[in-house]
Design goal:
The chain is mostly helical. Helices cover 80% and strands 0% of the residues. It has helices at 3-14, 18-34, 39-51, 55-68, 72-84, 88-101, 106-118, 122-135, 140-152, 156-170.
């Protein structure tokens, strides 16, 4: 990662006000002016715009990042933004694209699994959480979420097993 991108990335982690995000957007815009082919800068611009509710600009920057380089991260960020704003079909499309690019990323599977759960598509959600657990068996939250899904479809014994695994992992 280039030094100016790294600096603005760490700036983003420290933002807690709209004014700070506006300053970050200015800095990232300067980075983009220097290197118009930097997908990370566009992705981070998308994140900054998303955080202050400028969703159209966020979506444009995620799209521009993807135009430069197909990568799951902008799709994941786009999906999360869409989900936060209750555009669930569009969120699902974004998560599906991300997973097509990296089907072995447990974070992407958890994102889509969570969305499937919101959509009432419990079996698909369980499938994604099961795959995420296989890839990252020590991430406690996956067991908790899958437990809730099992409970929703009446599989109480499986729900209890997952809840026990969650309790063990979350106490470590």
């Amino acid at each position: 990662m280039q030094p100016d991108i790294l600096h603005t990335y760490y700036q983003a982690l420290m933002c807690d006000s709209e004014e700070q995000y506006e300053n970050l957007i200015k800095d990232l815009s300067d980075v983009v002016k220097k290197n118009k082919e930097n997908p990370f800068a566009y992705n981070n611009l998308g994140l900054a715009y998303s955080e202050i509710g400028r969703l159209e600009e966020a979506e444009q920057n995620f799209a521009h990042s993807l135009k430069i380089q197909k990568h799951p991260t902008p799709y994941k960020n786009l999906g999360m933004m869409m989900e936060r704003n209750e555009w669930l079909d569009r969120a699902l499309t974004a998560f599906n694209h991300a997973i097509q690019l990296n089907e072995l990323d447990p974070t992407l599977l958890r994102c889509r699994g969570s969305l499937y759960g919101k959509l009432g598509r419990y079996e698909e959600a369980i499938f994604d959480y099961t795959k995420a657990i296989a890839l990252d068996p020590n991430f406690a939250y996956s067991y908790l979420e899958r437990s809730n899904l099992y409970k929703a479809i009446g599989k109480d014994e499986l729900a209890t097993e997952d809840l026990s695994k969650y309790d063990v992992l979350s106490s470590i």
